[in-house]
């Protein structure tokens, strides 16, 4: 019996949209979520929650579940999971396709400082900076460690540590609008935006707002991932799926 099951490594809006389209077209899809979000928005089709247990665990799952194609639609900063997917698929000879939204690029009027890590991002902020921090709940320590800056840290889930008195936690889920982002920046006297270069439309409004308000942006560059076939559009992804399942 030929393999026809598709595994989506998910946890992103892109992954949900991919699953919804594939399930609607009659494909046999299972989406894997890491389980770090308490109340995730679930995609169509089967969903499994929790890690695989490294490369060995993922290899075992690929064989047991008879996976025909792995679609890596994880966050652009989920470098470890992407590396494990490459290693496991290579060993099992299972095709792998990475779906990765294009990164944001600076436009006329932008004032970006590109850095390689959250630690470096925190280090380049000037004394007295009032920061809108949108790097997620895992990269707070370097910013909270500085008593000479303050601001708002926005995330979906509660952070793993309590913020110091000079920081406020704002729990919100994208998408966001430009007017709302401009109001957030203006009403809270924000002087700097710190973010990861995640790309995508759902959270890019903050960049438009920073441009309009002439707020400097500290942009954390994407990590380097192992090479893998990659697409950035749904049509291209569907063509690959068709080629794998109906050669």
TrEMBL record:
<dbReference type="InterPro" id="IPR003723">
    <property type="entry name" value="Precorrin-6x_reduct"/>
</dbReference>
<comment type="pathway">
    <text>Cofactor biosynthesis; adenosylcobalamin biosynthesis.</text>
</comment>
<dbReference type="GO" id="GO:0009236">
    <property type="term" value="P:cobalamin biosynthetic process"/>
</dbReference>
<protein>
    <submittedName>
        <fullName>Cobalt-precorrin-6A reductase</fullName>
    </submittedName>
</protein>
<dbReference type="GO" id="GO:0016994">
    <property type="term" value="F:precorrin-6A reductase activity"/>
</dbReference>
<keyword id="KW-0169">Cobalamin biosynthesis</keyword>
<keyword id="KW-0560">Oxidoreductase</keyword>
<dbReference type="Pfam" id="PF02571">
    <property type="entry name" value="CbiJ"/>
</dbReference>
